[in-house]
C-alpha cells in the first residue's frame, strides 16, 4: 500500500513578487528549494497565512540567494506581496517507509534566506 506523506515544507516565507501575466507556478529561490529537497516542476501546496487561501501549483527554480518567492499566473491572484506563505510538498511512499521517513522542514529568516 502507498500513502501520501509530508515530504518537505518551507515555513513562513514572504511573497516578494507576483506576476499575473505569466504561465503559472511559484518561483522559489534555489537555496530554499535545495534546503527543502524540492525540484523544478514539483507539485506543491501553498498556504497563505494572511488570507487563508490554499491552492496547488508547481515549482520554478529562482535565482540562488535572491530570496525570491514569486507567484505567477492565476496563483498571483491568491496573494499580495508581503503575504506569509507555507509551501508544502508531499510524496507517495510505501506504508513501512512512511513510518520512519523524515520530512525536510525549512525555517527561513525574514528575508527568505536560510538561517
- Write down the overall geometry: globular
Mean pLDDT: 97
| Regions with little confidence, pLDDT below 50 for 5+ residues | none
> In the CATH classification, which architecture applies?
Beta Barrel
Percentage of β-strand residues = over 45%
> What does the radius of gyration come to?
14 Å
Percent of residues in helical segments? 10-25%
Total discrete domains: 1
Sheet/helix structural class: mainly beta
CATH fold naming: Barwin-like endoglucanases
Q: What's the total number of strands? A: 8
The CATH class is identified as Mainly Beta
The number of helices is 2
Strand order of the largest sheet: 2-6-3-5-4-7-1-8
Outline of the structure:
The chain has 115 residues and is mainly beta.
Question: What's the structural blueprint in terms of helices and strands?
Answer:
Layout: E1 2-14, E2 17-19, E3 25-29, H1 30-36, E4 43-48, E5 54-62, E6 69-72, E7 84-94, H2 95-100, E8 104-106
Parallel strand pairs: 1-8, 2-6, 3-5
Antiparallel strand pairs: 1-7, 3-6, 4-5, 4-7
Task: Describe the structure in your own words.
- By secondary structure, this protein is mainly beta.
- The chain has a single domain, classed as Barwin-like endoglucanases, CATH 2.40.40.
- Helices cover 11% and strands 47% of the residues.
- The chain has two helices and eight strands.
- The protein has an eight-stranded mixed beta sheet.
- A hairpin with a 5-residue loop joins strand 4 (43-48) and strand 5 (54-62).
- The chain is globular.
- The model has no long low-confidence stretch (mean pLDDT 97).
